Predict the structure.
Amino acid sequence: MKILKDKNIVLGVSGGIAAYKAPELLRILQKAGAKVRVVMTKNARDFISPLTFEALCGHKVLFDLFDGSYTSAIGHIDLAKDCDAAVIAPATANVIGKLANGIADDALTTFMLAAKGRKILCPAMNEAMYENAAVKRNIMKLEADDYIIMEPSEGELACKTKGKGRLADCDKIADGICEALTTKDLIWKKILVTAGPTREFIDPVRFISNPSSGKMGYAIAAAAKKRGGNVVLVSGPTYLEHPEGVKFIKVVSANQMADTTFINAPDADIIIKAAAVSDYRAEKFFEHKLKKGLADKVSLSFCKNTDILKEIGLNKKKEQILIGFAAETEDLEKNAFKKLKEKNLDIIIGNIVGKPGSGFEADTNKAVLFFKSGKKKVLPVMDKGELADIILSRCLTL
Ligand code: PMT
């Protein structure tokens, strides 16, 4: 979301029932630091008052091309000149049809034809309308004209039917705007990311694992996707929704993670291992649930799992970038440099675990980047998404 800071975003609102969600999108964009202005169609005013938007963004809403009270007689051109992104949410079949055919007969369509920045449409309509051949044709035309289409979601529609036609989730739209504004510096690059914990089952109902939520790895995958990368995300069990547009491979055990990672590693340009892999697994897997029995103590025997990262490091190609993570409770620097060397890494990201705001499960992380050269870079506590972007930028400088 950082990319939205000080960006000029024009929010277009056309006349559909989902117009009531547009203020929520406006607030999300504003919270991220964007300067938002609103252009509406006249029909949109039957669903939501311009006053709502004026109160939220502190600017007059443009809906009449000939409204003399706007800042200048050609208000739509003023907005179009400085606009980084124009997003219509909701975009009706009517507005989509007009834009696909270059028709500019109101403030919104005229503005869109003149707008300079990225153009994003978020269709919302009845399912049958969305499936209509003419609408589909118009959407394809607009995609060919470099418009970004944020597909509607499925669910119950205002007309009480179920299907695809609901306005995409506002957070997803905001994410889509961020992606549209992000420089595509990882295009043509294959980025392999591992995330989350592994589970080593002892019997059908018990396993050993760790508290990794997957947040760090998923943030890296999402950031790499936004930057145009071809992303493969290998993940242990998590409760997270995986980022859209990445190749997602779900695994459970360290052995499965090893197999999947080894298949995907040879042609990857950048490999980032944020997963918390179990170092050991139970030597014997019991087919049936172990019963309590009479003994006060039981002991289990564990055997070593493959060190996936070390294995990849051994076979690392010259042009590949290999990044590992080190989750430590003590001697971060010493342990991180040891792992960097042993596993033949370019960078290792050391993070302290067991402190609030860092490591497992937190939305933020406190990390130190350790480089092959022996140098290090201490970073402040930051959002895992922000850290992900720093790591990826470092990969590019290598
Ligand atoms: O998922 P979150 O809740 O967001 O938490 C993020 C995190 C703390 C899990 C993450 O930032 C992190 O530090 N991941 C690595 C944790 C870890 O297991 O570190 P390690 O020191 O055990 O392993 C070092 C490196 O070797 C890691 O890149 C690990 O993926 C890799 N490894 C370890 C063991 C093994 N058998 N195979 C491996 O590839």
